[in-house]
């Protein structure tokens, strides 16, 4: 798990997070290192073989959040996914600057603000 963890720390966290937020880096590293290698491998295999969800049937408002340095769910992939929410009452895509894949860990205040705004806006509809 050591090699996988180090690869993911560098690929999935933004360079800003790696430089300025050692607690976020430690959290991600620890959460990955605590996984059993065999279980992690089985999870990866399951994800690789998973069928896409039928998101076009979702009718609720949708908020998608990613980071501008997200190598797992890059902004363009998230924007493409957003186009599939045909039945949603609204779809909002937020790309957080200086952020990788672990958005609530890397940018908790921004994620909280976006979620509060989204919930407030959709509580009225």
Detailed description of the structure:
The protein is mainly alpha-helical. It has a single domain (2-123), classed as Rossmann fold (3-Layer(aba) Sandwich). It has helices at residues 2-12, 15-20, 22-33, 37-48, 75-82, 103-106, 108-123, and strands at 62-67, 91-96. The protein has a two-stranded parallel ribbon. The relative contact order is 0.17. The model has no long low-confidence stretch (mean pLDDT 94).
- The CATH superfamily title: Alpha/Beta hydrolase fold, catalytic domain
Strand content: 5-15%
- Spans of at least 5 consecutive residues whose pLDDT stays below 50 are none
Q: What is the molecular shape?
A: globular
- Terminal-residue CA separation: 46 Å
Number of strands: 2
Largest sheet at a glance?
2 strands, parallel
As laid out across the biggest beta sheet, the strand order is 1-2
Defining key terms:
two-stranded parallel sheet, 7 helices, mainly alpha, globular, 2 strands, Rossmann fold
List the helices and strands and how they pair.
Blueprint: H1 2-12, H2 15-20, H3 22-33, H4 37-48, E1 62-67, H5 75-82, E2 91-96, H6 103-106, H7 108-123
Parallel strand pairs: 1-2
Helix pairs in contact: 1-3
In short:
The chain has 125 residues and is mostly helical.
């Amino acid at each position: 798990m050591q090699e996988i963890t180090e690869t993911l720390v560098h690929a999935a966290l933004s360079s800003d997070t790696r430089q300025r937020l050692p607690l976020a880096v430690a959290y991600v590293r620890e959460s990955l290192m605590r996984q059993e290698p065999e279980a992690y491998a089985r999870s990866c295999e399951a994800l690789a073989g998973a069928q896409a969800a039928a998101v076009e049937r979702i009718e609720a408002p949708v908020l998608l959040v990613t980071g501008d340095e997200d190598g797992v769910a890059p902004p363009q992939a998230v924007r493409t996914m957003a186009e599939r929410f045909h039945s949603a009452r609204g779809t909002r895509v937020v790309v957080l600057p200086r952020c990788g894949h672990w958005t609530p860990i890397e940018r908790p205040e921004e994620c909280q603000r976006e979620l509060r705004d989204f919930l407030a806006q959709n509580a009225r509809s």
